[in-house]
Amino acid sequence: MTISCHLPKISRFRKQRWICAGLLLYLSVLPYLAENLHVEVQSVKAQVGEDVLLPCHITGYGASELELQKVGVGWLFITLNGTEEDLYSFNGQVHRPRRNGSRVSEEELQKGNASLLIPQVRIAEEGSYKCVVVMTPNRAEGMLYLTVSANPKVALSSSEITVEAGTEKSVMCLVNQFYPSSIQVRWFEISGNRENEVTTGICTGSLADNIDGTFNVISRLRLKASLKDHEKKYACSVEHRTLINNIFLTATLHVTEHKTQIAIIIFSVIGSLLVTSLLFGVASLIYVKYFRKVPPTMTITIPQKLIHLEKAVFSCQITGFKPKDITVEFCLETKDNRRKYISTWSSSEINSKVKPQDMDCEEQVSLFLTEGGTSRLDSYFEVEPPMIQSHNDKTFSITCNIVAIFDMYRHDGAKLSIKVHHTALLHPATECVVFSVEGVPPRLSKILAPHRVVHQEFCMLTCPISCFKPRPLSISWFKKQSEGEEEELVAVVSMHEAFTHDAVEEVPGYTPSISDAVQLEDKSYCVTAMLLFIPTALEHQNCLFISEVSHEATKTKTRMETWLQVSAMPILEPIDSFPNTPKSDESVTLSCRIHSFFPQKIEIFWCKDGILMSEKPENTESTADQIGLYYCISKITFMPSRMDRGKTISCQIKHESSMDPRCVEWNMMTLMVSPRISEITSDSPVLEQEKTVTLKCQIEDYYPEGCIVQWNKEIGVIKMENPTLNPKTGLYSSQTTMAFAPTMDDHGTEIVVEILHYATMVQSIQKTFQLFLKGVPVVLDIVCNPEVAGYGKPFTLICAVSGFHPENIIVDWYRDNMKMTDGITTTDVEQDSRGLFSLRSALRLVPTALDFNRSICFHVNHPRLQQPIIKRSTICLAAMYPTVFEIEKIPLCMEVNKLQTLRVQIADFAPRDIQVGWFKSQQLFNMEIATTESQIGENGLCFAESVIKFTPKWNDQNAVITCRIVHLATSHVTEKSCILTLQGVSTNVPNQISESDDVPPHLQEDSGSVQMLPIDGEMGGVQIQCVTTSPKAGEKVTLKCNFLDYDLNKTELKWYKGIYPLHNAKVEKKTCKDGFVSYVTFQTDREDRECRIRCEITTDGGGQEMDVCYVLKLT
C-alpha cells in the first residue's frame, strides 16, 4: 500500500518571487541584429581542471579598435532544460563575472576579441554557451559547445600473479575518475605475439559515481591455471573517448607445482598396490571434478559515497561454488534494530526473478513528498535477477546487482546483510555492509546587487543557493561596517523539510525572504535568498553584507559576501542670475545649487549652447549635511554679448551615480541688448542754403523694442520707423530721420540726436552732425604746438579755413582785442576738385609772464558771411610762484638812530601779481615800503625788488624783521626774516640767524621759506587739469599734470585722493619738449560730489619738493 500526502507551503514573500530574476538582467540588447556586426565562435574540448578559453571574435565593427564605453559583452550558459543562465557580463565600464575566475581581457576586447577564460573547468560546465555582443544599436551572437572529459586512471591489482597449478586466482583492473561514463574494458591473453580476447571468467561491476561527477568501475578476471599456462601474460585494455590509444596494462602469470614427497610416490608406485592406487586416483579425480562440493566465495562492492535520494548500484559477487544449487537472502537492519527482509533468490529455477519478502508497511511509505503531489520517490531496494555462469572446472558464479535509493534520515547507519545458503556450507555464509548516507552541501553563487545602489531607494540583495539536499537549511544575513568591526546580525530565515512555512527573524529595516524551492532531477534543491532594505549613504556606504548558509544535514556553513557602494544622484536647483535681468556687454553671475549627492567627488561644467565656456567657474567645497549627503554651489561670471540672446546656458555635472551627465538650463531670452547707433548721415554730400536735406540715424540690434529718440532741431520733419525684428538674432532695428531746409544761421552748428533705450541705458547716447553749407567758410579750432606753452620758448597757433567760395577772404589774429601783425604766416588760397578754396594761417610767438592765460582770437571775413567767424584760444601757461632771496642789510652794521635799508630780491614768477608786506616782531611794519613794478626777464618770467627804510631804536635790539611775499595766482606765501643786531647794544645773538635758531615755529619749514599748498591746482611750473568733459560721479575721470623743466627720469609722483593713495589708478607719463605730462585715470565713487586730488612730487635727491592740489567737482 502506498501512501502519499501534499502539504502546501505558505510564503510570506510570494509576490517577490520574480524579483531575483529581474536583478539578474544586466545586459540590455536591442531586438534586431546588425547587418555588418558578426561574432565568430568555435566549439572547444577540454580536460577537467584545465583553464579553457571560449573563443569569440568580433568582426564588422568598422574601426581599428573598439570603444569600450559603447560595447556590451555577455556570456550565457544553456542548461539541459534550455534555460539561459548569465555567466559573465560587461556593460562598457564594469565587469561582472558570475563564475569565479572567469574574465574577458579589456586589452583584447579593444582588438575585437571577446573570448572568455574559465579557469579549472568542471564536468558540470559541459554544455552550450552563447556569446552576445552589443554595440548600440547593433547586436550579434554566436553559439558554441564545450566538451569536458576526464581521462581514466587504470591500475591492475597485481602485475605479477603467482598461483599453484590447478587452483584459481583473480586479477582486478581498476578504472577510476573517468568521464563520460561510456567506457569499454576488455581482457586479452597474450601468447608470444598473439593476442586472444578472453570472454569467460570476466566479471565487470556497475559504475560508481564520484563526488566530482566522474565514474569508477572494476573488472575482475578469474584465472584457473595449469603448468602449461606458466609465463602467460594477461592484459586489461581500456577504451575511452579521451584516449587516442587504448590503455593496455599487462600481468604475468607464474604457475608453481604442488610440493609432494618423492619417496612416498616411489614406494606407492613400486608397491603392490600400484593398480589399486591407480584406480583410486581415477575415482578421486572423478569425485573431485563431478561430486566434490566447493563452498562459495562472496565479495560485496559498494560505491565510494552514498548520496541522499540518489540511485546507487552495488554488487555482490558469489564465485567458485559447486554444486549449482544456492540460495541468497537480502535483509536490511535499521538503526533501531528492526530487521526487514528485502528479497530472496534461489537457483532452483534458472534465471528466476528475485522474490520480494514481506516488509513492514512503514518501509513502503513514500519517504519524500513534493509539493503538489505530481511526483513521488519511494525508497526501495531492488535486486536485479542474477545469471548463473558455469566454468571449465565445473564451478559456478553469480553476480547480484542491487539498486537502491537511500534516505539519509532512514538509512544512514543501516546494515545490509547478504546470507548465502549452500550445501557445501555447514552454516549459511553472511556478509554485512553498513551504509553511510550523506547529504549534498549547498553551493552559493555570488551575491547579486543592483548595478547602482541608490540612497533611500529599495535595494534587494539576492544570493542563489543551489544543488543541496536534503531541504532544511538556515540563512543568516550579517552586516559589517568596516574592517576590524564586529559583524551585526540583521536577518535570519530558515527552511524546513516540511512544506508548511519558513521561520523568519528580522531586524527592523531589513526584510529577508526565500524564493520557492525548485527540485532538480537528482532531487536536490535550488533556492534564492533575498534581503530587502532601504540603504542610506551614512549607514551603508562601504558596508560588507554577508550571507551565511547553514546546512544541518551536512554540518556545513558556507559564506558569500559583497561590498555595498551607495550613491545618491545629485539634484540641481534652477539657475539663479544676478542681476535678474541681464544686459549685454555687462557682467552677469549665474549660480546653481547642487545637493543630495553621494559620494563627494563631482565634476561641474558650464556650457553655452553645448560648448564649454571659457570662463572658469567658482565652485564651493562639497559639504556633507546631517544625513551624509553632500551639497555645493557653482557660480560663473561672464559678459554676454548681443549675439548671445536666445542662447542657452547649462550647468552640467558628472557623478558616478549616473551614467549620463545631468544638467539644468537657463535661457537668455530675457537678455537686454543696448542698441548700436550709427553716425548721422546726410542724403546729400553737399548741403546748400534753403535746400531740403534729410539726416538719418540707424538704431540696430537692440532688445526690447522700446526706444526714445529726440532731435535738437526744432524746425524739421522727424520720423521714426517701427522696429523690425530679426528672426535669427531676435533683435530689433529701426531708423530715425529728420528733414529740413538749412539757413545761413545753421552753418557750423551741430545737429544732435539723443537716443535712450530705457531698458539698458541710464543716460541717452548722443550723435552729432556738423552742418556746413556749400561755399561758406569752415573754420577749424585753433591748434597749439606744443600743446603746453612754456615761458620764453617759441609757441605756435595754427588755424585752417576751407570750403569757401569765392576766393576773396580776410583772416586776422587778435590778442586782447588788438590786431597782431608780427609772427603771422598765411598760406596762399588753394582750390580743390569741388571748386572750393582753402588756406592755413599760423601765429608764432614767445610767451612771457604777461601772456599768462591771455586770449588769442582768429577772425575770418568772407562775402558769404554776414558776421565774421571768430575762433578763440587761450595760451595755457603754468603759474610759477616766486623765488625769494635772503634779506639784504644796507649798511651791514646797524646803529641806533641811523637810517637803515633792508632789500629783498623777488625773481622767476608768473603771472606778475604779487603782494609784499614787511613785519617787525609779527606786527605790520608801518614804514615806507618801495616795491618795484614787475618786469620781464630773459627767461620770460617776472622779477621785482622790495625795499624798506627805517631808523632803528634801542628797543629794536634782537627784533625779527620779516618780509612776506604772497603770489596771488598760486596763493603761495614765502617769508624771509632777519634779526636786528645793533652796535653798541649788548647782545649774544648773531645778526643773521638760521631757520632753526629762535625762529618762530611758523617760519621753520623749508630753509627759512614757507610753502603753502595751492588751491587752484597750479604751482611753479606744475599745473593739474581735468581732461574728462563734464565728469560724473561713479564714472572714470582722467586728470593731467604738466611738469615744465622737469626730468621724467628724475621725478617721482604719487597721487592721492584726500589723505589716501589712489588705488587701482592708471598712471601714464609722456615726455614733451619742455618737460613731461602725467595722466591719471581712476574710478570715482557714486556718492562723490567733490574730490580733493593731490599730486606729491619728489625729485631725484629724495626730498619732497612740492604738493599740488586740485578740487575735482562732479555732477
TrEMBL record:
Residues 31-149, 152-256, 570-665, 675-749, 777-857 form the Ig-like domain. The chain crosses the membrane at residues 262-288. Keywords: Disulfide bond, Glycoprotein, Membrane, Transmembrane, Transmembrane helix. It comes from the Eukaryota. InterPro entries: Ig-like_CS_Receptor, Ig-like_dom, Ig-like_dom_sf, Ig-like_fold, Ig/MHC_CS, Ig_C1-set, Ig_sub, Ig_V-set. It comes from Microcaecilia unicolor. It holds the Pfam family C1-set. CDD domains: IgC1. PANTHER family: SIGNAL-REGULATORY PROTEIN BETA. PROSITE patterns: IG_LIKE, IG_MHC. This is Uncharacterized protein LOC115468917 isoform X1. The keyword Glycosyltransferase does not apply. SUPFAM superfamilies: Immunoglobulin.
